[in-house]
Amino acid sequence: MQLRDVPSLGLSTEAEYPRGEIYLKGNSVFKGYFKNPEITKLVLDEDGWLRLGDAGVLNKNGSISIIERIGEMKKLQNGYFIAPQKLENIYATVPIINQIYVDVNSTYNFCVAIVHLDKEKLL
């Protein structure tokens, strides 16, 4: 298992807490898609490393924690990256929130949330 830099998302393996895209290699990793080399090239590099599409951080104990899906991360105007689905999942655990939608727009320095509250629990 390894982490690889993703400069477009500000993920670096040289940071204090190394962050990057998670890659796997080994006997349990598949060799590719049957009769579909184009899709295989998207997920396997030339050395046989499987690109998971997940951003991870290397913890002090040597384990890797998944931060978010690479494709789900969106950049704000100020350069910060936000994972809206992760925020939605966190805020959805609040008892007075029925539903929440987080929108990230690259032309703003902030994200916006639309929240539907549970009237009975709120009262």
Descriptive overview:
The chain has three helices and eight strands. The strands form three sheets. The chain has a four-stranded antiparallel β-sheet with strand order 1-2-3-4, with no helix packed on it. It has a two-stranded antiparallel sheet with strand order 5-6. With 123 residues, it is of the alpha+beta class. It has two domains: 2-70, Roll (Luciferase, domain 3); 74-122, no CATH class.
Gap between N and C termini: 50 Å
Radius of gyration: 18 Å
What's the total count of β strands? 8
Sheet with most strands: strand arrangement: 1-2-3-4
Q: Quickly name the level 1 CATH class of the largest domain.
A: Mainly Beta
Instruction: Estimate the global geometry from the Cα principal axes.
Output: elongated
On the 0-100 scale, what is the average pLDDT? Answer: 91
Count of separate DSSP helical elements: 3
Q: Write the CATH architecture name of the largest domain.
A: Roll
Hey, roughly how much beta strand do the residues contain? 25-35%
Instruction: Please identify which CATH superfamily of the largest domain we are dealing with.
Output: Luciferase, Domain 3
Tell me the CATH topology of the largest domain.
Luciferase, domain 3
The major pleated sheet works out as:
4 strands, antiparallel
Q: Give helix % range.
A: 10-25%
Which key terms come to mind for this protein?
single chain, two-stranded antiparallel ribbon, Luciferase, domain 3, alpha+beta, 123 residues
Summarize the structure.
15% of the residues lie in helices and 35% in strands. The chain is an alpha+beta fold and 123 residues long. The protein has a four-stranded antiparallel β-sheet with strand order 1-2-3-4, with no helix packed on it.
